[in-house]
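Ticket #4471: structure export looks truncated?
Reporter: QA, pipeline team
Priority: medium

Steps to reproduce: submit the single chain below to the structure queue and open the exported record.
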Amino acid sequence: MLDKFMKGLVDFIYRTGRARKKFERDNPNEIVLAADASKGVITKKDQDIQHGANWVTSQRAVILLTDKKIVCGKWIISLDEISAVQLIKYGSGQVLKIQTNNGIHYQFGMQTNPEWTNQQILPLTLEKGHVKYSLFSIIVKIFIWGYLIYLFFVFYGRFIAS
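Actual output as written to the record:
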């Protein structure tokens, strides 16, 4: 139930339904098969999915799968250009990994959505996985937890002193 709530919230924030309708109106000759709020990155090689600095500056947009292409913000990937595609599910999310014929690797993180697994046009390899942590994300987490503990003791100390 929490998964559906989170998907609905993220879709509301990204205005996924509105983006889908606008695309369908502007492109009447294409059928939208799946739409999701997404964060996307381009990698130089096939990489495992992991938290890292590249996701901080990722492209945030609605990803659309049509019968001809995948569109996510400024990126347009023709289905003919795709050489491999995986959908990796983890927890309440999923990552769509795409490799193109010219060696570009995309990763799109999104909430779990059955539209991606139910569609028949994109030959997905489905996998279960988990998100790894980069050194950057570990350092950031340690810093944030340390700062929260510090704040707790500062405010707790003031509360006890008064």
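Status: closed, not a bug. The export was complete when the record was re-opened. Leaving a note from the reviewer for reference: The first strand starts at residue 32 and ends at 43.
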